[in-house]
Amino acid sequence: MPLSDVRPTPTSRQSPTLRQIETEQDAVRRMHARVDADTEHLRTQLARALQGRSADTTVLHDREARVRLLSRRLRALDAAGHALCFGRIDTTDGRVLHVGRLGLQADPEDAAGDTPLLVDWRADAARPFYAATPVHPLGLRRRRHLALDGRTVTGVTDELLDGSEPGPDDVVGDGPLLAALTARRTGRMREVVATLQAEQDEIVRSAHRGVLVVEGGPGTGKTVVALHRAAYVLAAFDGVADQGVLVLGPNSRFLDYISQVLPSLGENDVVLSTPAAVVRGALPPGTVAVSPDEEDGARPAADAALSRVAGRAALADLLADAVRARQAPDDALAGGFVVRVGGDEVRLAPDVVAGVRTRAQDAGLPHHGGRAVFLEEMAEEIVDATVADARATLERIDAESAALIGGDLDAVVAGDLRRLGLDGTPGADAADELDPDALRAELLEGPALDRAVDALWPRLDPGQVVAAALAAAAAPGALPRTTEDERALLARAASGPWTDAHLPLLDEAAELLDGPPARSYGHVVVDEAQELTPMQWRAVLRRCPSRSLTIVGDLAQAGPSAEHDRWADALGPDLWRRAQVRALTVSYRTTAEILAVARPILARVAPAQAPSVAVRRGDEPRRATALRDDLRAAVVREVGAAADLVPGGLVGVLAADDAVAGFASALTSDLGADPGTDADGVDGSGGRVRVVPVSQARGLEFDAVVVADPAGIVAARSCGERDLYVALTRATTALTVVDVD
Ligand SMILES: Nc1ncnc2c1ncn2[C@@H]1O[C@H](COP(=O)(O)OP(=O)(O)OP(=O)(O)O)[C@@H](O)[C@H]1O
Fold first, then answer.
1. What distance separates the 2 farthest-apart alpha carbons in the chain?
2. UvrD-like helicase ATP-binding domain spans which residues (predicted)?
3. How far apart are CA 616 and CA 714, in angstroms?
């Protein structure tokens, strides 16, 4: 019986299901009463905390922390408004725990003593709800799922885990997983906290604070796991809530798809972004000219190729070299260093300046910090040289006058003064008159030294460094395994304009010049992680000083910028040595029949990867053929047929990037609505159609998918076969492939 069909009515008290629903309704009513009371109480406390005034920074700091804590709890209470409680576990010794979106303490008046009203799904006590199986029941007799509509309990289903026979209070039926998996897609991912599976839950609540890498085939729940882990980490790891969590996805279409999951788990403070947008936001505005539309549009092939070749870790060395080459290089020192101090020229020998350079570089600061050290040390050398110079001049004058007058000039002057009845101490000489502190201040504050230093250790902007590094990378032999075309690409890219492909380089250059970015996070989640190049990983790590990351991806789905087929290579040594790897093996999205269509392609793109096991069976995928001239009409027809298979559902049309516009306009004229490449179109049966370029389909899903011209998809990009693998694995229910005859 579908859960939604079960509604409690006062007249059907005999039904065991309804009796259980009423029992649970009582429990849920008590929970909501507590939520309402807590909300009221917290609001009062928050208002009071916000009013408090103080000049004491410690008090202010404490108050800020308190306001943050109260606001966080209030938001969690607010988000729990729907489906506050979704589960219950009964132990074999008769203890009962309800599991939900947040924890609620025991009722003080409750006879049940210290049993909480509700246990937060992230708490250790909730673990058996997810982990218990009939083989390992973990002390449970029964796991119960509750279905709620707002505050109303609409159904219960039980699983008996200890092998006992169902009693009068057990409502054994289909678990809610199947209902969740076959529910119509809305175009936005839902949270699955009620049905998280044991292998997923184990990853979500892993205590490993370092780098957790989760690999698995399409639809195995990698995104689900990554997002629920973000919520878990926020609650379970100290300090993370204060430092923030960043979730990275490949493009804004994907971010929109996952945007509701964390808010519906009560987490509103997580930053969702793309690797490109995060970097772009840290650079001065206008450094990279990209409109939001371009970000979502298909990326030019040249840009992807540049991302790949300029994404290699070796570029980091070339950027560092480019900066170092602008720090008083030997060839700029050949003539020494000359600066005017007052009316005089001061000259420093090349080896003196080289010594200053070494001291400045050894300070281990970014380029501009190093420049400040260089400038100060140069000022010091100039002061020393000036004092030494003045002394030498005086000594020379003394020696010359001694030769002239046949004695020590000072002694002669002292004798003359004494004869005049004056003090016999000679006046301070010129070297003593020279005030080193004043000279140093003049050098450091005036423009002359700064200008002279510019010729040796110039101020730089990231673009200058990137241009130099790319030009160096384009030289034969600079980068291993580069083709002539790639070198030409690097040479062209060196003169700008800057595009998304340059962003990781600009970010690295910005760090070399001025240090790490201002904003960093306590934990970073990277979804579709197979897309990132080594240089992009460096940009991610720059924002995650704690090195606490959850990384999920599937190398078989890698796009055009990826070069590696092992995580160890793709992630690089810094990440890999901290990584724990977990695998997900069950495909929840799609049916065994659909996976079978994709399997031969998987065997080609990732021969070492074991195919996932589908949790469901379904209809055989459809295969249609059309002449090239009829392709659009055939796709329109197949979209109609697919929509009929998933009434009210979401149909995705996936095609090579340059073919998308044609299918969108054919569907527009047929459906009388604009499916665009982004917006929804409405078909006759009330469903929706989305036309999506295959380069943007990673991570998405639809009830039905029409893959248009698979050969065209394969031919369109260097990663064409992997694109096709992605396209074939997007459907929950119905797949149609339209080949060109
Ligand atoms: N435990 C679960 N309960 C309910 N639904 C689930 C569960 N696990 C996964 N799903 C559903 O299966 C589908 C696929 O999950 P998800 O997108 O996380 O997979 P993925 O491994 O990230 O896929 P891809 O590699 O294609 O990006 C989603 O609709 C998700 O909601």
1. 133
2. 195-591
3. 28
Cis? peptide before 275, omega within 30° of 0? no
For residue 220, report the distance from its CA to the centre of ligand 1, in Å. Answer: 5
Give the pLDDT score at 97: 95
DSSP bridge partners of 673: none
CB count in 10 Å sphere of residue 155: 25
| pLDDT for 309 | 93
Helix%, strand%, coil% for the chain, nearest 5: 50, 15, 35
- Cα 175–chain centre separation: 34
- What value does the CA radius of gyration of the chain take, rounded to a whole number of Å? 35
| 84: three-class secondary structure by DSSP | coil
Burial of 674 (0-12, 13-18, 19+ CB in 10 A): middle
CA distance 539 to 276: 10
For ligand 1, atom 15, the nearest C-alpha belongs to 221
Eight-state DSSP code of residue 165: P
Task: Output b/e per residue, 564-581; b: 16+ Cβ within 10 A.
Answer: ebebeebbbeebbebbee
Q: How far is CA 269 from the centre of its chain?
A: 14
Please state the φ and ψ torsions of residue 327, each to the nearest 5 degrees: -115, 85
Please tell me whether 618 is known to bind a ligand.
Answer: no
The tokens describing 21, both together, are 């629903």
Q: Are 272 and 525 in contact (CB under 8 A)?
A: no
Task: Give the residue carrying structure tokens 């080289």.
Answer: 354
Residue 405 CA to residue 203 CA, distance in Å, equals 94
Ligand 1 atom nearest to 588, measured from its CA: 12
Runs of H (alpha helix) within 108-197: 127-131, 176-182
Task: Tell me the CA–centroid distance for residue 507 and ligand 1, in Å.
Answer: 33
pLDDT for res 434 = 74
Cα separation, 176 vs 190, whole angstroms: 14
Residue 715 buriedness (CB in 10 A; 0-12 / 13-18 / 19+): exposed
Phi, psi of 638 (to 5 degrees): -70, -30
Does the annotation place 216 within a ligand binding site? yes
Residue whose tokens read 């700064």: 450
The model's pTM: 0.86
Ranges of the chain with pLDDT below 70: 1-14, 108-113, 289-302, 407-433, 671-687
Specify the pLDDT at position 209.
93
Which distant-in-sequence residues (6+ apart) come within 8 Å of 384 by Cβ?
none
Pocket of ligand 1 (CB under 6 A): 177, 180-181, 189, 192, 195-197, 200, 216, 218-224, 554, 588-589, 699, 701
What is the full DSSP assignment across 661-721? HHHHHHHHHHHTS---SSS-EE-TTS-EEEEEEGGG-TT--EEEEEEE-HHHHHHHSTTHH
Instruction: Give me ligand 1 centre to Cα 218, in Å.
Output: 8
Residues 6+ apart with CB under 8 A from 667: 635, 636, 639, 653, 675, 681, 689, 691
Residue with tokens 């957790």: 212
Distance in angstroms (rounded) separating the CA atoms of residues 500 and 259: 23
Contacts of 346 (CB under 8 A, 6+ apart): 338, 339, 340, 382, 385, 386, 389
Nearest-5° angle of CA 343, CA 345, CA 349? Answer: 160
Instruction: State whether residue 242 is helix, strand or coil.
Output: helix
pLDDT at 679: 39
For ligand 1, the distance from its centroid to the CA atom of residue 426, given in whole angstroms, is 92
SS3 at position 119: strand
Q: Residue 401 burial (CB < 10 Å; 0-12/13-18/19+)?
A: middle
